[in-house]
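@channel sequence for tomorrow's demo:
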Amino acid sequence: MNICCIYSQEAFATVDKPLSSPADIPFGISYIATVLKERGHNVAFMVLTPDSNIDKMIRNYINDKRPSLFCLSAVSSQFPFICSVAKVIKLIDPSIYIVLGGHHATLNPDDAIRSQYIDCVCVGEGELPIIKLASKIKNRERIREINNLWIKDNSTNEIEKNMTNAFIEDLDSLQMIDRNMWKPWIENNNRMHSILVGRGCPNRCTFCSNHILSKISTGKYVRFRSPENIILEIESIIYSNPKLNCIFLEAETLSVDLKYAYHLLSKLEDYNKGRTKKISFGANISLSRGIIGNEEYFMTLKKANFSFINIGLESGSEKVRNEILQRPKHSNEDIIKVCRSLKKWGIEVNLSVLVGIPGETLSDFEKTIQCVRKCSPTYVYLSIFYPYPGTKLYHVAKEMNLIQSSMADVRLERRKATMDLPGFSRRRIQLEYVLFYYYAFKRVWPLGKIIVHVIRTLISTNYTTERLYRKILSLGQMRTLQHKMSASSR
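structure tokens (generated this afternoon):
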């Protein structure tokens, strides 16, 4: 049976190749496509952007392949776009079955299933239900009684809400994702790859969906693949991409289970010992008492050839971070100490930072800037807070009457301020967002590098200028110039 999996990309490299690197491959729908292909189905991928000729792409695929099933995926901000894609599919061939998975389907299934163009939604992990769904469609059986699926009867509009399976605890049981399906959509396949190390997060941050996702099913939520299984996938990737020199180990945090972390790091060190060309690694960590001041941990990261670590600072105000965001309770000094330890061992530090958090004041954000300066990261992933439906902080923002109708345009989520906070206006939030790199890195970075980041941030805050930037950047000469500018500003 022919099946098409669709993924959407708002911030894209080029229209024809929307993903900048293999590190942009989304794991959720990749595992769905892989298990379907493993069961003998002919699976194709389609990556769509706001500038894609959606009708032409889908119509050509349907006319050529005559698929029976489309698998769509969406976070809340991409849901309206994905609904428009589903509409195109149904207008071309109403008999095609459409299933929606992803965060929006899991966090807001009542909203997702109301779309007239979606036949069912997947709540929770989709590997097992998608196999059963595809089998029933292929065998022309009635679609019903499949765990994790909310199934719509289009003749009566009744919804069958099935129970959810327990979380898949043995992640080694999952087939390694088929990366070849993504290659036509990636601009540069020799850039950094990523590997899924684990699922689930031990933290319960109010701005994130993990505190909801952990309650969707029974069983263990925070799970990791075995180091041996991860090494097998690394070997497979390197075999197919001999020029590759860096792999990102994707997990919410690589510091929640130190016994597991040391085992994995030891295996990575042993793997590199047998190579002439060493592979470097990167990962996310969150602070825990086990790593603060633990020089053995940082030394082991270095021995395993880690070149960078991402840390979620989010706010330099301990009040905002601990009380509003409910991050793991650590002081700024703890975070600064960990950053200094990593850099002492030659490991770069990248920070995630939010601005415009409900309850945050301008004074709070000034503390964030000061904390960032003391941490002295290599890079900052800066975002304006956006209230994602289903999260605790969304309900807080709603109770504070901060959510306005203007939020309906999600094209600039996390780049455009939408909320006027008491003591921190929307206009001021936007200004602080644009000028962040100047305040955080003046007299630290070269002035030229700061100016490039400020201008790039300013361009990103307007949909028209952002689209124009990407159209210009899609020209080969401009992309070469950008790489040269980036190199000269380091």
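heads up for whoever presents: Residues 483-490 have pLDDT under 50 and may be disordered.
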